[in-house]
Predict the 3D structure of the following.
Amino acid sequence: MKTNAPRPIESDLTGSDFDLSVDNVVFGFDGDQLQVLLIGLTGEDMRPEQFHMAIPGDLVKANEGLDEAAHRILSSLTSLKGVFLKQFYAFGAPDRVIEEKDREWLMRSRRYPKRRAVTVGYYSLVSIADYLPVASSFASKAEWCPLADIPPLTFDHNEIVAAGLERLRQDVAHHNIIFELLPEKFTLGQLQRLHEIILGKSLDKRNFRKNVKRMSEVVPLDEKQAGVLHKPAQLYTYKKSV
Amino acid sequence: MKTNAPRPIESDLTGSDFDLSVDNVVFGFDGDQLQVLLIGLTGEDMRPEQFHMAIPGDLVKANEGLDEAAHRILSSLTSLKGVFLKQFYAFGAPDRVIEEKDREWLMRSRRYPKRRAVTVGYYSLVSIADYLPVASSFASKAEWCPLADIPPLTFDHNEIVAAGLERLRQDVAHHNIIFELLPEKFTLGQLQRLHEIILGKSLDKRNFRKNVKRMSEVVPLDEKQAGVLHKPAQLYTYKKSV
DNA sequence: GGAAATTAGTGTACTTTTGACACCAAGTCA
DNA sequence: TGACTTGGTGTCAAAAGTACACTAATTTCC
């Protein structure tokens, strides 16, 4: 129905109140496996077994942008600053925060605990050696957890992690980002293991190195690995081209 | 600072009230160029020259999911039903709805016109021949507009369209979706033109056809084009593989 | 000091994919 | 019947991908 005439105000009927949050899926690589940064949400009268684990996220403030909020929240809960963060999906199922187990924490920490919450997911990639998580604000702990050992998390955080991982894989397969996840100096073996871990399949060493040698951004250093119990590897670094 | 002890409720200080909306960037292909579906937002006392054009979007209801909202809103404003819609990005800059020119419409149509609005962008792909937009609800018109001729739109809708186009290009380059945008029966020439238009570069005809012939989903029909002023082309259709 | 263990590092042959390139065919219109 | 327009086809060379096996450098243990 087309109507050019004045009409009743429609949106009044459709709008609603929402909480808006940001949740960060932070992947870390320790040279061996992928980990995810989790925080503990402790309640006043909770015993340690009742810790709820979650990914670091919180409500967005009135006057900050989403990216800005993601950085602030990650930093305030885990002290990780200056990391690469990329928005990957908005999660807005109407029932995403209504599970019984999560209610106590919501009651304590939200002004409107029953309000529907929509969250925007960000993912990140860091080298574990470069960042030491330190819990603060409402996080009672902040620690790395191997991807395979992730416990049930609050809300739909398990789904968010899964979606973040899928997006990470896509981005890596299309030759993006991966260098965010390595220490400044790395060996080709580490780079290959990282690809294998993220992509979930093994790669041929010679072919892999052939490809890397075509990337002008990966440059060898005048330095070798030390303190390892085998032949030391050449170290490389990543120079972003302008 | 780590604190296991009871602590003040932090989120009370950070939360805020948001409007949550969905905006749809609907691309249509007419065999010749890409168009975008726009609606007109008319005010009671606006003259036609003062129409504000926008992409079809509105507030999400309290009890519906985001995908669901995107379909409802698109259908209620333009009558397009059953189209493919894909979420691509959340836009949440704090100042995205504060421009002077947009205020009148907000005052009239929102319960809290000054409230910050976060929107989730969806894009879609349809064949123009298959869908006739019909304006309803608060849309005073609903019509296709060639990509190159898009006027200044309300809010940050021009940015949203640009971001949607970029994402469309990525998805097409990775061999997704394109068949959503063609009529049921199409010629290889149309398919190639569509790729060229979306990707913004020209492709070699023989190489293109070589590639298409490798896709088992594209099957020739027992039918040829008719009514064209040149050699009629073989018609093909797309069969989704199970 | 030598042996064992461990990871680093290297090249070649085959297959597949991509990219460049030019002409005839079938229909409409004047 | 000739001019115009789009449809339709094959080959060759270059680049990228894939499969595959041995020697080299270091540590630790005996």
Notes: Residues 204, 206-207, 210-211, 228-232 of chain A lie near DNA strand D (CB under 10 Å from a C1'). Confidence is low (pLDDT under 50) at residues 1-13 of chain A. Chain A has six helices and nine strands.
